[in-house]
């Protein structure tokens, strides 16, 4: 890992959801939420301390067109990585969570390699490791800067996090961002960091299913909410603010446009909330262009992220301007550039 690729602690379930669940009078809701908040807070602190100390140099892996995956079983404790249970090329095992994690890592590797010619997370063949069965009914999944860590869910609020390929693709894309623009995890640059992971998490799911933009559900975490929580998903790129609305979680707070931008000190300045704005801009672009969203819309976003022009502290407007310039560089001053400018205009972000 290079000195510039500084990891942050990124979870798929944001603190504002757990904050609301922790207030419930029902112990089935507040107990796992409080445990998750306490545990995630501790891990965030450890990550900040590790970042402040600096990162040790590492030797890049040999680039290959094949993934190098290892799945570990954490055995319901929080010591990582756990015991090795599945390696690259091995036959499927008896544990469905292990097999699902292995498949999702492979799908993410294939997507970045075949679509954007990026070899693994770091671009140089980084091995992909994941630990499943992390913690006791742990209600989250995260990228820790080196590997995927995946909880089983408590079965009432959230189900097994290996069920959602877009969740795993989202978290692994935090690693891609870490090794490219390394967007600072606060305010608008942090919301862009989260949005990029949502965009490519959705595209990885669409690619694995062979879906066009109009066929996709544009949801993150569909099927993740358990029987105790009604709702479609964690987030919606198509319609931010509509993914869930229930007494336990409240209403999805994501805005779709800058008119409803949320100013808050929580969640690193609302990185999981205001990400709805660039998420929606991408959805508008992808559906306007049609076809497979990874081919043109996704290429514009990926190139903007990875070509070295995006500053770590970029705000929405800076990112928007770069996507417009990238569209012109890739496709000429035609439909793609016009669609990019229109999409950002629709969400209230100036792109020119």
UniProtKB/TrEMBL annotation:
Localization per record: Secreted
GO BP: any one term: proteolysis
Top-level enzyme category: hydrolase
Q: Which residues form the Peptidase M4 domain?
A: 71-178
Give the EC number(s) under which this enzyme is classified: 3.4.24.-
Keyword annotations of the record: Hydrolase, Metal-binding, Metalloprotease, Protease, Secreted, Zinc
Gene3D superfamilies given in the database record: 3.10.170.10, Neutral Protease Domain 2 (1.10.390.10)
- GO CC terms, sorted: extracellular region
Q: Which GO terms describe its molecular function?
A: metal ion binding; metalloendopeptidase activity
Needed cofactors, names only, are: Zn(2+)
The active site consists of 171, 272 (proton donor)
Which residue intervals define the domain Peptidase M4 C-terminal in the entry?
A: 181-349
The record, for CDD domains, names:
M4_TLP (cd09597)
**Top-rank lineage group of the source organism:** Bacteria
| Main location as per UniProt | secreted
The family classification in the record reads:
Belongs to the peptidase M4 family.
Q: Which PANTHER family does the record associate with it? A: NEUTRAL METALLOPROTEINASE (PTHR43579:SF1), PTHR43579
This molecule's function is given as:
Extracellular zinc metalloprotease.
Recorded protein name is Neutral metalloproteinase
Organism listed in the record: Streptomyces natalensis ATCC 27448
Taxonomic classification: Bacteria, Bacillati, Actinomycetota, Actinomycetes, Kitasatosporales
């Amino acid at each position: 890992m290079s000195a510039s690729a500084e990891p942050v602690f990124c979870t798929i379930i944001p603190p504002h959801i757990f904050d609301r669940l922790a207030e419930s009078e029902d112990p089935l809701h507040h107990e796992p939420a409080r445990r998750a908040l306490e545990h995630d807070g501790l891990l965030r602190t450890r990550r900040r301390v590790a970042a402040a100390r600096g990162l040790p140099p590492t030797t890049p892996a040999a680039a290959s067109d094949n993934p190098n995956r290892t799945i570990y079983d954490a055995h319901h404790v929080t010591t990582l990585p756990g015991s090795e249970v599945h390696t690259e090329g091995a036959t499927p095992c008896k544990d469905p969570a292990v097999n699902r994690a292995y498949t999702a890592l492979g799908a993410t590797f294939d997507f970045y390699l075949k679509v954007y010619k990026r070899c693994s997370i770091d671009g140089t063949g980084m091995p992909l490791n994941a630990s499943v069965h992390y913690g006791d009914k742990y209600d989250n999944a995260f990228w820790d800067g080196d590997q995927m860590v995946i909880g089983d869910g408590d079965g009432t609020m959230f189900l097994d996090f290996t069920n959602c390929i877009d969740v795993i693709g989202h978290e692994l894309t935090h690693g891609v961002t870490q090794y490219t623009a390394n967007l600072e995890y606060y305010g608008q640059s942090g919301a862009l960091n989260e949005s990029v992971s949502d965009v490519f998490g959705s595209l990885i799911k669409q690619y694995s299913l062979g879906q066009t933009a109009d066929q996709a559900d544009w949801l993150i975490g569909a099927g993740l909410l358990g029987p105790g929580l009604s709702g479609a998903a964690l987030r919606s790129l198509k319609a931010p603010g509509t993914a869930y609305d229930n007494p336990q979680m409240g209403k999805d707070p994501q805005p779709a446009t800058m008119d409803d931008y949320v100013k808050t000190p929580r969640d690193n300045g609302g990185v999981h909330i205001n990400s709805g704005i660039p998420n929606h801009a991408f959805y508008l672009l992808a559906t306007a262009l049609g076809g497979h969203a990874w081919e043109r819309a996704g290429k514009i976003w990926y190139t903007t992220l990875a070509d070295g022009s995006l500053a770590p502290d970029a705000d929405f407007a800076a990112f928007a301007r770069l996507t417009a310039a990238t569209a012109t560089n890739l496709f000429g001053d035609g439909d793609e550039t016009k669609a990019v400018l229109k999409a950002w205009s629709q969400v209230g972000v100036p792109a020119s």
